[in-house]
Amino acid sequence: MIRSPQRIEDALVAVWLVERYLDEVEKAFSGVSSSVQTDSGVSARLFGSFLSWLNDHESDVFVVATANDITKLPPEFARAERFDSVFFLDLPGAEQRAGIWQIYVGLYRLDAKQKLPLDSDWTGAEIKACCRLSALLDMLLRYGQSPSGSHHPDSMTVGLQCPLAFKLRYIDGVRLPATASQLIGKHVHAGLEQWYRHRQLGLPLTPAEMLSRNDATWEDAAQTEQIAFESVADEAEARQQVRALLTAYLSSVPQDDPLPVAVETRLTAPLIDPANGEDLGVPLLGIVDLVLAEQTGPIVVDLKTSSRSDGAQEIQHEVQLTSYSYLIRETAGQLESGLEIRSLVKTKTPKIERQRYQRRQERHFRRFFAVLREYFDALDRGRYSYCPGWSCQACALRDSHCQAWDG
């Protein structure tokens, strides 16, 4: 390992037209802030020398660095013009995932005609693992990640409301055509993600820039979701609704809104009951829309679009809110200062509703783990009965698969 700043500089300029790749750079410089206490300042001096060289060198060295969590980078590293460009690489889109499936289905010699599991939040590594397990255990791909594999708040909420809907969606992999309303929600979400990611990087967009960038991706998004609008006018109306919702949201955000420390972040933690230390044996998965930095601790924000006012009924969001609280505590080691749901309501004149909820208490986790045990018991028994009720009104499975179910 090179411990001398001068030897690092000599190594970098010793060759012509070299590319220097720094993988997971936030880990390479993770000890800079405490260097004086841990290694007599060696890491801090190396970091300072590297920054000076990066800023002043005239050699033909092209530096590329990757980071999983830019919030852990020393602030000096992320200042403007330290790097020529900053790129964000998201989870693979539908087209990329289809290509990854094709590669690994062929590699593991699986049946290419079988149904695929729901993979909207999967990485390439998870697709590979699913194919490998399917081949190893001689099972269908949609069982390659079984119901007992990993659980997230959305699937748990569906499982608690209607076990039959859970089975159809998450086990049988029933795919229903996307609707215009779902496209509007996803496109609004994509715009807000872009807005907050730029703020996180210290490269904020103006509202006009964000709206322009978001609008430019509309046609690709509609094609990916395979939305067939009845008329050009219907599509124009949906597109305008996205602009109106985003404009209303940006107008409602206060100037002193805290900076984001995490945007659309995937968190996973083992489910261990804090009351008795029992490990339930499965991980909890959650994708948190937004985490904002407040002096009293992080505030977890969930962004939603809805067709009508949701009200402030905490109980209907309790599983999701407690899940996010648990994940933040387990992965970041911090108590949240609170949780917030920001709803963009698709009324004629868009409304923005913000409900703030208190930090989760012991009673919330007792209720959460009691519900989890009921949920897992139902999965273990393989009992997927239907539960007729008010939620059937909005269920896309109501008039097709549900009617065909005979127990």
Question: Can you put this structure into words, describing what you see?
Answer:
- A hairpin with a 6-residue loop joins strand 3 and strand 4.
- Among the domains are: 5-78, no CATH class; 94-146, no CATH class; 180-252, no CATH class.
- The longest helix has 21 residues, at 180-200.
- The chain is α/β, with parallel strands linked by helices.
- Mean pLDDT is 82; it is low at 144-148.
- It contains 15 helices and seven strands.
- It is 43% helix and 16% strand.
What keyword list fits this structure?
single chain; 407 residues; alpha/beta
Secondary structure blueprint with pairings:
Elements lengths: L4 H9 L4 E5 L2 H4 L6 H5 L2 H15 L4 E5 L28 H14 L16 H14 L15 H9 L1 H9 L8 H21 L6 H10 L1 H7 L7 H21 L7 E13 L6 E16 L2 E10 L11 H15 L5 E8 L5 E7 L4 H20 L19 H4 L3
In DSSP terms, counting alpha (H) and pi (I) runs of 4 or more, how many helices? 15
Q: Approximately how much beta-strand content do the residues carry?
A: 15-25%
- What is the terminal separation in angstroms? 65 Å
Low-confidence stretches: 144-148
Q: From the alpha carbons, calculate the radius of gyration and give it in angstroms.
A: 24 Å
Shape: globular
Largest sheet data: 5 strands, mixed
SSE series: HEHHHEHHHHHHHHEEEHEEHH
Give a brief description:
The protein has 407 residues and is of the alpha/beta class. The chain has helices spanning 5-13, 25-28, 35-39, 42-56, 94-107, 124-137, 153-161, 163-171, 180-200, 207-216, 218-224, 232-252, 318-332, 362-381, 401-404; strands spanning 18-22, 61-65, 260-272, 279-294, 297-306, 338-345, 351-357. A 5-stranded mixed sheet has the order 3-4-5-6-7.
